[in-house]
Amino acid sequence: MKCKQWSSPLLWLSFTILGIALFASFGPAEKSLGSNVRLVYLHGAWVWAALIALAAAAGSGLVGLLTRLNTWHAWSHALGKTGLFFWVTYLPISLWAMQTNWNGLFLSEPRWRMAVIFSITGLLLQIGLSLIRRPTWTSLANLIFFGVLVFVLQSTDQVLHPPSPILTSESLNIQIYFICLVALTLMAAWQVARSWRCWEQRALETR
Question: Domain for residue 126, yes or no?
């Protein structure tokens, strides 16, 4: 992978985040939550970006384990850290959405507790993998982490999280808007993953 020295990934990422914020502020209102539902849209898009990045990390890791190519292991490492970044940063967005829409912080909510546990576990895991620097271990760990996360998500009770409330909405405008918001958020996730990959590559080249 070629990383251009003149490029400014943080600048482009800032532009993308700004675009997400602006796009989120013009989301369609909903009859029960009104304009406050825009935080729910943002929260949902952020979670989807995290899950897709973690799924990509697991997929890249699996390919790396099967092909024994370090490139796939490196992408698994970068995507795993990216997915964790979005997973951790979705927590304050979730708190904001709770307070705005339901006038309180429901910290005992099962999905919230699960998210916090996986955030702490994921942080410790990624720190350990970065210190160990074993590509195959990284790929295997990302594969197992995503598998356990999906299993726990499927088995965790949903209280403030009805199943796919946006995608099952009768409003086509809401569905199209949310898909566009997810696409924008995935663009930011790609920029983060590419930055991680380039930084790691440059670190190896300077050794």
Answer: yes
